[in-house]
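Signaling modulator of AmpD, AmpE
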Amino acid sequence: MALIVFLLAYLIRRRLDNANHLSSDALWRLWFKWGSRSRPGKEEAAGPALILLLLPVVIAAVIEFELSTLGVWGLLYPLQLVVLVLMMGTPGWRSLMTDYSEAWSRGDMQAAWHHVRDQLPARERGDALSPEAMHLSLSRALMLAVFNRFFLVAFWFVIGGMAGAILARGLVALEEQWPQAPARPAFARMARWLAWLPSRLLCLTFGLAGDLAGWLRVARRVLSHPGLTTGDALMASANGALTGYALDPDRFRTLHADDWLEFGGRSAEAIRDLLNRSMLVWLCGLALMVISGVI
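Predicted structure tokens:
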């Protein structure tokens, strides 16, 4: 039943994302308002944030345990569906990437930058950023957003049920949105630990969902360096799995100068397709686990 629940949640979430509805970021921001104040000198304290995160995690774990023990599946499955829909989602990215690709196709790199600057890391938002660097930074941000809000949630939902999904998504939310900025690096480290295994699994999935021969050329370097950040691992693996230099703008511009204005749209579409195919691989893997009785 876990497969059906997740599949329904995924389909519902995709429709909501296409309509730009129900952002989980807004829900977490509202919840974290309880931590908007701290005593002077205590801004780096992680305790209050972890208490706010663990509260819904523990509640979800208790509810799931009690309902499963009582065999009240008619309440448990709809509740899991709601939780997954709330924890997943990247609303706004579809329209953002469409506007970005259109601006790129016109050669208006300034407009393209204006569309996506809020999604770029703070240190990379300068208007002097080259088109190549801007696109790689945006591609990294896109993959991290989809990973954190779909694949990470899916992995920990299978492992730990509703509590696992809330914990994984909540740590990412703390890293991005906790009101006391000095505490965020600690949450980033926690989120990185929680993301290590599912991110490496997604890196392996890229080889199945993309160009296996190209992926094999980079797989050893990625998988043999456990210290790579989630973003670096995903970018390197995706670069090997994608054809047509979709994540190598310098090489593309050298070999296909006449098609340079099409690069932004082509690359964005290639990344989306790779991530969609990777989710399909995960769903097939989950189905096999259900059939074999593993879960």
